[in-house]
């Protein structure tokens, strides 16, 4: 396929995804924030379904040799970076995807969030390319290195290479875990709905109950 053809397909696919995200108001930040703070799970369920589909599809590609997973070490630096990124998402009020949508809708705060996202990525690229992040070459080898606080990396592809088990098997295990979480959310929503129905019935019964007859005052009767 030519470069122009790839660009056209990317534009069509990106436009379709952007339209879906904009209309559905999907947001990774809301998927976690709403579940923890407000006990609402609309975005959470959508995120779980997306993760199940992607996990199964991608590990299936790995099994047949077409998947090209990223390989990066996990260490203390990873957790620190994820924490900082999470703080940034909370302050921005959206994840990167929904920030793009809000910026397109004219939200000035989202535009500033995107600008400083680019600034941060640019500054990090300078450190990485110029100095190659000095600890990286010695400590990020893909194997556990506790002295450098690195845990190495392991994904479905590396597990497939080490144990000879198809990557899709590990993907199905993850899908099962995600589905169990999804089912737990459905059960919790059913309990919440039942509680709301009981409260509504109690309210209706109270408002529909006849007023009690007034108690006569013997003194006033005389």
What are the defining features of this structure?
globular, mainly alpha, 222 residues, 0% strand, 74% helix
Secondary structure topology:
Layout: H1 3-24, H2 28-38, H3 42-63, H4 76-92, H5 96-104, H6 108-131, H7 135-139, H8 156-163, H9 167-208, H10 218-221
Describe the structure.
The chain has a domain of 74 residues. The chain contains ten helices and no strands. By secondary structure, the chain is mainly alpha-helical. The protein is globular and about 80 Å long.
Order of helices and strands: HHHHHHHHHH
Main sheet attributes: strand count, strand direction, barrel closure:
none
Number of strands: 0
Distance between the termini: 104 Å
| Distinct helical segment count | 10
Structural class: mainly alpha
Per the principal axes of the C-alpha atoms, what is the gross shape?
Answer: globular
- Mean of residue pLDDT values: 80
How much of the sequence lies in strands comes to: under 5%
Rg computed from alpha carbons, rounded to a whole number of angstroms: 27 Å
Helix content: over 70%
Précis, in short:
This protein has 222 residues and is mostly helical. It has ten helices and no strands. It has a domain at 41-71 and 155-197.
């Amino acid at each position: 396929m030519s470069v122009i053809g790839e660009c056209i397909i990317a534009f069509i696919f990106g436009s379709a995804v952007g339209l879906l995200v904009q209309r559905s108001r999907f947001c990774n930040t809301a998927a976690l924030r709403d579940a923890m703070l407000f006990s609402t799970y609309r975005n959470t369920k959508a995120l779980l379904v997306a993760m199940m589909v992607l996990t199964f599809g991608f590990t299936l590609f790995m099994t047949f040799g077409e998947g090209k997973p990223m390989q990066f070490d996990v260490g203390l630096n990873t957790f620190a970076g994820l924490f900082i990124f999470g703080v940034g998402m909370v302050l921005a009020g959206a994840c990167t995807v929904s920030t793009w949508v809000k910026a397109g809708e004219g939200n000035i705060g989202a535009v500033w969030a995107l600008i400083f996202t680019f600034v941060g990525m640019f500054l990090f690229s300078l450190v990485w390319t110029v100095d190659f992040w000095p600890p990286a070459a010695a400590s990020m080898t893909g194997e556990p290195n506790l002295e450098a606080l690195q845990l190495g990396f392991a994904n479905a592809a590396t597990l497939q290479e080490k144990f000879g088990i198809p990557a899709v098997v590990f993907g199905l295990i993850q899908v099962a875990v995600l589905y169990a979480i999804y089912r737990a959310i459905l059960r919790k929503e059913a309990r919440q709905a039942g509680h709301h129905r009981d409260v509504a019935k109690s309210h209706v019964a109270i408002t529909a109950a006849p007023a009690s007859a007034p108690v006569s005052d013997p003194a006033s009767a005389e």
